[in-house]
Amino acid sequence: MKKKTMRTFQASLICLFFAALAGCVFAEEVQDSEVIPQLDREKLPGRQVKVAAICIGFGGEHDVKLKLAIEHLHTAGKNGVDIACLPEEFAGTEAEPVPGPTTKAVARLAKKYNMYVICPIREQAGDEQYNTAVLIDRKGKVAGYYRKVFVFWGEGLHLSREGVKAFNTDFGRISILTCFDLNFAELWRQCDALDVDIVFWPSAYGGGSPLNAFAILYHYYIVPVGAGNIIDVTGKTFENIEKPNPKQFIATLDLDRAFAHYDFNRKKVEKMFAEHRGEIKVERKLSDEDLAPWWLFKAVKPGVSVRELLKKYEIETLREYQHRSRKQINEARKKGERI
Question: Which of the residues 76, 106, 192, 280 has the least number of beta carbons within 10 Å of its own beta carbon?
Answer without folding.
Answer: 192
